[in-house]
Design a protein that fits this description.
163 residues, alpha+beta, six-stranded antiparallel β-sheet, four-stranded antiparallel β-sheet, globular
């Protein structure tokens, strides 16, 4: 993963997710719906989402080392939905990306961590973005691309700070 993409992705993810709460699940795919937060509520009027297309787990606290793919449970859609429902209305206090692969970790006010595997050779592992926004001049999306790539779309004043 490119260093500048990682920083831009971290900036966009922080703006979209920190302070938000898990407020729902979309039943088409594994998509979490997030609330807005104090930083972005004046700028974003669409639905913030996290689309999960790879293995994930919820830990009681941040693991000391990055979990391996074999460590993550193989869940069917019903099991995965039940597990994600445990996060309902919990506030996100931190978000981070892996250094090499775009593994996504979200820490909640309870200390729990949602870890989403970010590596696949052929497919996207996850996306975080905004849909149904009336702000036509702004597009928001962070995508864990195949082979450890990261695509970041967002306003320059957010994604390019600290680069």
């Amino acid at each position: 993963m490119d260093k500048e993409d990682r920083i831009a992705g971290q900036n966009a993810l922080s703006f979209l997710c920190i302070g938000a709460k898990i407020k729902g699940i979309n039943f088409y795919g594994m998509k979490l719906l997030l609330s807005d937060n104090e930083k972005n509520s004046n700028r974003i009027d669409g639905q913030i989402y996290i689309n999960i297309e790879s293995e994930f787990s919820i830990y009681k606290s941040m693991p000391n080392k990055t979990p391996l793919l074999d460590d993550l449970p193989k869940l069917d859609w019903i099991e995965a939905s039940k597990l994600l429902c445990e996060l309902r209305l919990k506030k996100i206090v931190d978000v981070s990306l892996g250094n090499v692969s775009p593994h996504l970790s979200m820490t909640f006010e309870t200390g729990e961590v949602l870890f989403i595997w970010g590596h696949h050779e052929q497919y996207e592992s996850w996306q975080v973005g905004v849909y149904c926004s009336s702000q036509n001049n702004e597009s928001w999306e962070v995508v864990a691309c195949p082979s450890d790539g990261l695509a970041v779309f967002g306003p320059e004043d957010i994604i390019n700070k600290n680069i």
